[in-house]
Design brief:
The complex is a heterodimer. By secondary structure, chain A is mostly helical. Chain A is 68% helix and 3% strand. Chain A has one domain (2-264). In chain A, helix 2 (22-38) runs antiparallel to helix 5, helix 2 (22-38) packs across helix 6 and helix 3 (42-59) packs parallel to helix 5. The relative contact order of chain A is 0.15. In chain B, the strands form two sheets. In chain B, strands 6-7-8-3-9-10 form a six-stranded mixed β-sheet, sandwiched between helices. In chain B, strands 2-1-4-5 form a four-stranded antiparallel β-sheet, with helices on one face. The longest helix of chain B has 17 residues, at 177-193. The chains are: A mainly alpha, B alpha/beta.
Chain lengths: 276, 287
């Protein structure tokens, strides 16, 4: 059950996207996020969706797998959709008692839902195609200029990689402890809210104790191997941009340019259901 | 209590790209009053198998009967099954959570809705069974104990439910020789004095040879061999080809034969068996 959480996991495959330099992928994802907020109508979203679909196809990450990762955030999307659909003034389409669904509300609700879905799909593609180690190396390299103003770039990156590394371990640990307590007759599924919250104590206490134990052991193991922070540390595989990285940079620039031009309206193409 | 496992198959992540067939058409019987050992290399499906035996995992197909009751069916009462079939996980010391040892041991009986007096009595019994001095340990925090003591507390927590069948996943792993012995002696005592049926997962062939009445060898989710320890360990080369060891006595005789002796020692298990076989062989050589 807990293993169903695929969001943020790495999906090993041989693809061009997997091979790209992590810094390029991070920068591209960042630019993509900005572009989603630049888009003003559904023609723009159709374009972004097509590009995302193309990248997904090239990455060989199955859409089914990505959709599975969406499950935990589906609630948030549905929730914002329902809120949005009722709060906007405009021409009333349907009236449900005191609540009105207006044309603006419907437009805004669909717009935000599409935006959220594109947002999550796009960013999860980054984690699906990039190993956690590469991801944090990429972040560290991008943040390095900021060490001059006192940002501990290496430490932040190290913390990120350890956190990512421990997500599956903690999920497995949770599953194990849950089963062990169930074997002693614990019941996590029935009862009212209060009772259920209380039933989580036998789960969370060992989980925290074990997490701290693992953290201490890891820290000692790192020190035993002479870890002393980022100063003077060299890399086994230094990152270097390749030809495909330069091609990717050009392509993502073109994508951003296309989105901006379309959103500014100067192309004269019709705007599909735009915001005011 | 007797447990019949019939055509049990378990597939993790069924229908997904990462599916694993952890159990493949497994059938066997755990006889009433037996000590059944389950051996097999890492990842052969032992832990998956025992989690089915008290309903923590549901099979993809197949059935398990406990004294004739199908415990894989939906209408079976889970608390009832969990009370009758106790399960001690691998490294159970990481599941303690209460403020005191006594409270932690009481967790199981409490979940079964027993009276305070009954719980108190059971905590006492369970602690004395596991050689935990009540005066000394009852009010201690379980987090202050040593690894071996924690493990005793965890096992006491399951014993306090007074199960008819006790399943243990490598109870002696990582213990010092003395604790290892007393853990195995506890298993034997529960079996002989309290008539508890035992299922024991172990990587220690000497323990299996010495304490078990029946052995099941798992390999890649299937049953590879089964029978009494003597029957099973006779297949020494097959066992070794599956990455499993042999009991000490068996190893000794094999090595001596390799170095030129011709001792008949097919049914040798323990060191004592081996000594007898060697002496017999020396007798024969003399005349
Ligand atoms: N929760 C799970 N999800 C997916 N696969 C699993 C899960 N638990 C176990 N497996 C897989 O099922 C197979 C059997 O695992 P199991 O834990 O039963 O082995 P084991 O015989 O107990 O090994 P060990 O001796 O190391 O304890 C392994 O291939 C393992 O990778
Ligand atoms: Mg196991």
């Amino acid at each position: 059950m807990l293993r169903d959480i695929t969001l943020g996991q790495y999906y090993p495959r041989e693809s061009v996207i997997h091979r790209l330099d992590p810094r390029v992928k991070i920068a591209a994802t960042f630019l993509y996020l900005i572009m989603i907020f630049v888009v003003r109508d559904f023609t723009g979203y159709a374009f972004v969706t097509c590009v995302l679909a193309a990248v997904t196809a090239v990455s060989h990450v199955p859409v089914k797998f990505m959709a599975r990762g969406m499950k935990p955030v589906m609630f948030i999307i549905v929730f914002t959709f329902v809120i949005n659909i009722f709060v906007y003034k405009g021409t009333v389409l349907v009236s449900l008692g005191p609540l009105n669904i207006t044309d603006n509300g419907l437009r805004q609700a669909v717009f935000i839902a599409v935006r959220l879905i594109l947002l999550i799909f796009g960013t999860s593609l980054l984690t699906y195609t990039t190993k956690p180690m590469q991801l944090t190396d990429g972040f560290e390299s991008i943040m390095r200029p900021l060490t001059k103003v006192g940002l501990p770039a290496h430490e932040i990156a190290m913390m990120m990689s350890i956190a990512l590394r421990f997500i599956p371990v903690l999920l497995e640990e949770t599953d194990k402890i849950m089963k062990a307590q169930q074997a002693r007759g614990a019941d996590f599924e029935s009862g009212n809210l209060m009772k259920r919250a209380k039933s989580l104590i036998p789960l969370f206490i060992p989980l925290f104790v074990n997490a701290f134990r693992m953290a201490i052991e890891l820290a000692m193991a790192m020190e035993a191997r002479c870890y002393h922070g980022g100063n003077g540390r060299t890399r086994l595989n230094p990152m270097k941009l390749q030809k495909i990285d330069y091609i990717a940079i050009v392509l993502i620039m073109l994508f951003a340019a296309a989105v901006i031009v379309q959103a500014s309206g100067i192309t004269g193409l019709p705007m599909l259901w735009p915001s005011r | 209590m007797r447990i019949d496992v019939q055509n049990l198959t378990h597939i993790y992540n069924e229908g997904q790209t990462d599916e694993v067939t952890a159990l493949d058409d497994v059938s066997f019987t755990v006889g009433e009053g037996s000590i059944t050992g389950i051996i097999g290399h890492t990842g052969s499906g032992k832990s998956t198998l025992i989690q089915h035996m008290n309903g923590l995992l549901k099979p993809s197909s197949g059935k398990i009967f406990a004294d004739g009751t199908d415990i894989t069916s939906k209408d079976v009462s889970m608390p009832e099954i969990r009370r009758k079939i106790g399960l001690v996980f691998q490294y159970p010391e990481y599941q303690l959570f209460e403020e005191t040892v006594a409270k932690d041991i009481a967790f199981g009986p409490k979940n079964l809705g027993m009276s305070d007096a009954e719980i108190e009595k059971r905590v006492h019994t369970a602690m004395s069974l596991t050689d935990l001095d009540y005066e000394k340990f009852a009010v201690k925090s379980p987090f202050e104990l040593s690894g071996g003591q924690k493990r005793r507390v965890a096992i006491a927590g399951v014993l306090a439910m007074e199960p008819e069948v006790l399943i243990l996943d490598e109870p002696a792993a990582g213990l010092d020789p003395a604790s290892h012995r007393s853990m195995m002696e506890l298993v034997r005592r529960l079996n002989t004095e309290h008539n508890t049926t035992i299922v024991l997962v172990s990587h220690n062939m000497d323990d299996v040879a010495e304490y078990c009445t029946d052995v099941i060898v798992m390999d890649d989710g299937k049953i590879f061999l089964s029978g009494t320890p003597r029957e099973v360990f006779r297949h020494s080369s097959e066992l070794e080809s599956k990455g499993l060891g042999l009991p000490f006595g068996q190893c000794l005789i094999r090595e001596m034969n390799r170095q030129g002796a011709d001792i008949s020692g097919d049914s040798v298990l323990s060191g004592e068996d081996a000594a007898e076989a060697v002496l017999r062989w020396l007798e024969e050589k003399k005349c």
